UniProtKB/TrEMBL annotation:
Keywords annotated in UniProt: Membrane, Transmembrane, Transmembrane helix
UniProt keyword Transmembrane helix, yes or no: yes
Regions crossing the membrane: 12-36
Region (Disordered) residue spans: 142-163
Name of the molecule in the record: Flagellin
Source taxon at top rank: Archaea
Length: 163
């Protein structure tokens, strides 16, 4: 019985089955990994968009309230020495989106919210008519304040700061 090779063919079949299974399993893992990265990127962009829209909405509300307060100062029946317009709005934003820290860039015509992991940014234009101080802030609670010019109601500035 020295020519009997049945035991060898069983071992070779077993090793080949394991190798094929490992290759198939690694292909599935790699394919699912790419899909997961894509879903994470979409979730981050969606969350950045929601945060950016919240910042823009509150910035425009601060602008509207500041213009309404300043309209009273330009009324000839109101003495400008009676005080300046004060508007402050606190905005409670999350410190992270999809588990990742982000930054908020406030500009004259738009708000940009961005993160580095994954590299994503969303730019949302705003319609504020009062001058907006350009700044970059970490994500989290913000304070929006109107800094009135005591001499000229048309020269106030909206400032956004971290709380």
């Amino acid at each position: 019985m020295p020519d009997d090779e049945r035991a060898v063919s069983t071992a070779v079949g077993y090793v080949l089955t394991l190798a094929i299974g490992a290759v198939l399993l690694s292909g599935v893992v790699i394919g699912v990994g790419g899909l997961l990265d894509s879903q994470t990127d979409r979730a981050v962009r969606g969350d950045l968009s929601v945060v950016g829209q919240g910042v823009v909405a509150n910035l425009e509300n601060t602008d509207r309230l500041a213009r309404a307060a300043e309209a009273g100062r330009t009324d000839p029946a109101v003495d400008p020495a009676d005080g300046t317009a004060v508007v402050e709005i606190e905005v409670d934003l999350p410190r992270r989106v999809a588990g990742v820290p982000y930054t908020v860039e406030v500009g004259q015509d738009a708000v940009t919210v961005r993160t580095d992991r994954p590299a994503a940014s969303v730019r949302i234009p705003h319609a504020a008519r009062v001058d907006v101080a350009e700044t970059t802030l970490r994500g989290g609670p913000l304070r929006m304040a109107y800094d009135a010019d005591p001499d000229d109601p048309a020269n106030g500035t909206l400032e956004v700061t971290e709380q």
